[in-house]
Each structure stands twice: as structure tokens, then as C-alpha cells.
Write a structure and sequence with these properties.
six-stranded parallel β-sheet; single chain; globular; three-stranded parallel β-sheet; 40% helix; 2 domains; alpha/beta; Rossmann fold; 11 strands
């Protein structure tokens, strides 16, 4: 059984990017720069953003962390994004979600210039992705593709079952894997909360590659896994546990112990897809820096 270790795969991506940034520095040019906006003091968001900043440093990127308190107005946030959009030293912009309820997430996402949308959430970039054009791929699905590539997991002609249909993971993942690309050409089934549970179980049992992004700890059990399947667990949830040092444990959407007994390859949680999401973000930032496409 192969552990699809995000530490190994993301290290390879970062080593390649570091080589590029070192060459850029040697040529006397500025390196890629990512600006991250964090609103409030959500613990998980703080951790995610800190990790993104740290990974920028490790790859030779510049980074800026812009903080606002929970009471920031939508207008103030939009003004800051407008400022970053026209700053020639900023290549990528990300706004850490979720945002406070008084701020419209969609309006904020659409305010980021498509050329700097390194999270890949802007409707223009999503549209280009659907049509198979070069664009920013949403960071988590991109990270999964990078992981499949690193571990040489073949997708052509395989039955992929995606459980979850969010715009951040499930839906773009299904489009990418069914598309004409090296990590694509699969035939894809999507299950979601309106799929009868017995049908979801039946589809999961048929999957050559099972991708799960539902946010329900250990939703996938061993009896739902086809022998020899590849399991990609996108979920990550804090589960209270009085016996744990921190008072909680991190669980994925897949029962890992049961999965490794049947699958040929499994991503761990933590240490799997989460690290590859950041790798995808960094790859998008380099693409933005290189200016490989423009929407002007």
C-alpha cells in the first residue's frame, strides 16, 4: 500500500519553484510576490495563512499578510483589493475564507483581478477551466493533480468517483479529471448530499479512484472501498478527544485504518492534500508572475 505523502510531493514542487526563483534572483529581478488578506482571528484561518506565508519563504517568494479585524466593512476590503490589483509588485492575491457574515464572499472573489486570482475562484478563471483553456486552476484540485502526477497515478480510462460537489473542490475536480490532460481522461461520477446513501456506497465500491470532500469525519469506511482503489481524502475536521494533548484530533473524510487495508494508495490526514493545496497555490503564483496569460 502506497502512502500518498503530501510532504514528499509538495517538497518536490517547492524544490522546482525554488530553483526558478534562484535563477530569477541571479538575473537581478524581483521574485514572485503573494499578498494574503486575513479578516478576524479564526484559529484555523490563522494556521492556514501562516503556513502559506512560510511556504512562500521556503520557495523564495515574497509575501505580504494584510490583516483586518472582524468589523472591517465590505467597502474597506474592496478598496484594499483594488489597491493590490494595480500594484505591479503583487503577482497573486488571496482572501482567506470564510469571511464575516456581513461581507459577500462572491463580491470579494469577483473583485480580485483574474490575472492575480491565484486561488482560482474568479468566475472568469472557472469558465476558462471548464473550456480547457490555460488559466489558474483552483488550488486544491490543482494540488490533487500534482500529487497524482508525482506518484504516477494513472487516470486515463479509470472510473473516478467524486463525493462532494463544492465549487472549491468537487465540481472543478470532476471537470479536470474528465478533461483532455495528462492527469485526466477519466470517466467521472459525482455523488452529493442528495444522492441516496446506498447509491453513494454503490458508486464508491466501483471507484478506481475515490475522491472525498464532504467534511464528515470518517464518512468512508472500509466496506465502501474497492480493493486496490486509490483514495484521495480532501476532508479535514477537528474532532474533540479528551485523551489527546490538544483536546482534539484531526480526522479526514475516510477511515484511514480501514482504507489502508483495502486500497492500493491513500492520502493521510493531516499530511496529504492540505500540503498539496499550498503547492497548487504556489504554482499559480509563479504562473501569475510569469504572465502566461492576460485578461486585460
Amino acid at each position: 500500500m502506497l502512502v500518498l505523502d503530501g510532504k514528499i510531493a509538495s517538497a518536490a514542487v517547492k524544490a522546482s519553484l525554488l530553483q526558478k526563483t534562484q535563477a530569477i534572483k541571479a538575473a537581478g529581478k524581483r521574485t514572485p510576490h503573494l499578498a494574503a488578506i486575513l479578516v478576524g482571528n479564526n484559529g484555523a484561518s490563522e494556521t492556514y495563512v501562516a503556513s502559506k506565508v512560510k511556504n512562500c519563504e521556503e520557495t523564495g517568494f515574497g509575501s505580504s499578510l494584510i490583516r483586518f479585524d472582524d468589523h472591517v466593512t465590505e467597502a474597506e476590503l474592496l478598496a484594499k483589493i483594488s489597491e493590490l490589483n494595480v500594484d505591479p509588485t503583487i503577482d497573486g492575491i488571496l482572501v482567506q475564507l470564510p469571511l464575516p457574515k456581513h461581507i459577500d464572499d462572491e463580491k470579494i472573489i469577483e473583485a480580485i483581478h483574474p490575472d492575480k486570482d491565484v486561488d482560482g475562484f474568479h468566475p472568469m478563471n472557472i469558465g476558462r477551466m471548464v473550456q480547457g483553456f490555460d488559466t489558474f486552476t483552483p488550488a486544491t484540485p490543482y494540488g490533487v493533480l500534482l500529487m497524482l502526477e508525482h506518484f504516477n497515478i494513472q487516470t486515463k480510462g479509470k472510473h473516478v468517483v467524486v463525493i462532494g460537489r463544492s465549487n472549491i473542490v468537487g465540481r472543478p475536480m470532476s471537470i479536470l479529471l474528465s478533461g483532455e490532460r495528462p492527469q485526466g481522461n477519466a470517466y467521472v461520477t459525482i455523488c452529493h448530499r442528495h444522492t441516496p446513501i446506498e447509491e453513494t456506497k454503490k458508486m464508491a465500491q466501483q471507484a478506481d479512484i475515490l475522491i472525498v470532500a464532504v467534511g464528515i469525519p470518517e464518512f468512508i469506511t472500509g466496506d465502501m472501498i474497492k480493493p486496490g482503489a486509490v483514495i484521495i481524502d480532501v476532508g479535514i475536521t477537528r474532532v474533540e478527544d479528551a485523551t489527546a494533548k490538544k483536546g482534539f484530533r484531526i480526522k479526514g473524510d475516510v477511515n484511514y485504518e480501514q482504507a489502508i487495508a483495502k486500497a492500493s494508495a491513500v492520502t493521510p490526514v493531516p499530511g496529504g492534500v492540505g500540503l498539496m493545496t499550498i503547492a497548487g497555490l504556489l504554482m499559480n503564483t509563479m504562473k501569475a508572475y510569469e504572465g502566461k496569460f492576460y485578461h486585460n
